[in-house]
Amino acid sequence: MVEVFKTNVKDQRHANRLLCLIHQTFREYKANFDLEDCDNILRVASATEFIQVACLIKLLQESGFYAEVLPDE
User: N or C terminus of the chain: which is more exposed, having fewer CB within 10 Å?
Assistant: First the structure.
């Protein structure tokens, strides 16, 4: 399962901090940012379970950032 999020994370330092937080909170997820994309993409993958979208969005919001799921094309 893979989910792709549009975010307002623009700084690599913030992205690294958020990735640490995501990996600590959701140990089975693999996540990365593409800050060169105009939507500052966060990709999250899990081989073992569904991605908890609402929990991920809340985690970013609690850290002061915005995220929304990008629809599948």
Answer: C
How many Cα atoms within 13 Å fall on the side-chain side of residue 69? 14
CATH number, domain of 8, equals 3.30.70.100
Q: Which range of residues forms the domain containing residue 60?
A: 2-69
